[in-house]
Design goal:
The chain is an alpha+beta fold. The protein folds into 2 domains: 106 residues, Rossmann fold; 81 residues, Alpha-Beta Plaits (2-Layer Sandwich). Helix content is 41%, strand content 23%. The protein has 9 helices and 8 strands. Strands 6-7-5-8 form a 4-stranded antiparallel β-sheet, with helices on one face. A two-stranded parallel sheet has the order 1-2. Strands 3-4 form a two-stranded antiparallel sheet. A hairpin with a 2-residue loop joins strand 3 and strand 4. It starts with 7 loop residues before the first helix and ends with a helix.
């Protein structure tokens, strides 16, 4: 917690004094890291919510810890604030800090994290590199003028079919590493159906999360 009537520098001096981490000489360094150095003399109450979050991260950086634990760092922020915190986390990671982040904003986890763990009622459901958790199977997305005919043809490749009429596409789930787009395209063409869209779709983390946590 920070004092609203004090500047960033004065608030960090209090944090440093109480925690015993780092020294007053570190304050300018951490403010530069979180891009608040130019506003170091401004009172805390004049900061946007995103700036307040960055000041909290600056306080955590005092003493140059190797590991940072961030709890919902983008919670309540507008899109600009979220982008600022995201860029800061990535930059801190590149500079050698290990960052453990708890978040329910799965899109941000997907954009920022290299590894992840999913918990359900205190039980570990899965863990691993983000790409490995997402790519548990191949999801092929195809489009054609006749979606019903396309869905019937794709059933020969996989039984889990999902239609998106608004997007004009059909998705089929296949065992990981088994999708052959050329073979799918050729099969549809030989059956008289011309595809106007065919890609290997990366599964979104939100989709994977619900697959793993729904009973």
């Amino acid at each position: 917690n920070f004092y609203h009537y004090l500047s960033a520098v004065d608030n960090l001096k209090i944090t440093q004094s109480i925690s015993g981490r780092g020294s007053n000489a570190d304050i300018d360094t951490v403010l530069r890291k979180v891009n608040l150095y130019e506003r170091r003399a401004s009172r805390f109450k004049t900061y946007s919510l995103g700036m307040k979050q960055r000041l909290a991260i600056a306080a955590a950086l005092l003493g140059s810890p190797r590991v940072l634990v961030l709890d919902e760092p983008t919670n309540g922020l507008d899109p600009v604030g979220i982008a600022e915190i995201r860029a800061l986390i990535i930059e801190l990671s590149k500079s050698g800090h290990t960052i453990i982040m708890a978040s329910h904003l799965l899109d941000e986890v997907e954009k920022v994290c290299t590894h992840m763990a999913i918990l359900k009622t205190g039980t570990l459901v899965t863990t691993g590199a983000v790409n490995e958790v997402l790519q548990d199977e191949d999801v092929v997305e195809a489009g054609a003028a006749d979606l019903n005919a396309l869905a019937r043809l794709l059933q020969q490749f996989g039984s889990r079919i999902s239609m998106q009429p608004e997007a004009g596409t059909v998705q089929v789930a296949l065992p990981k590493g088994s999708a052959q787009l050329e073979a799918i395209n050729r099969h549809c063409f030989e059956q008289g159906l011309v595809l106007n869209h065919l890609i290997l779709r990366k599964k979104r983390l939100e989709t994977r999360f619900f697959e793993l946590t729904n009973d």
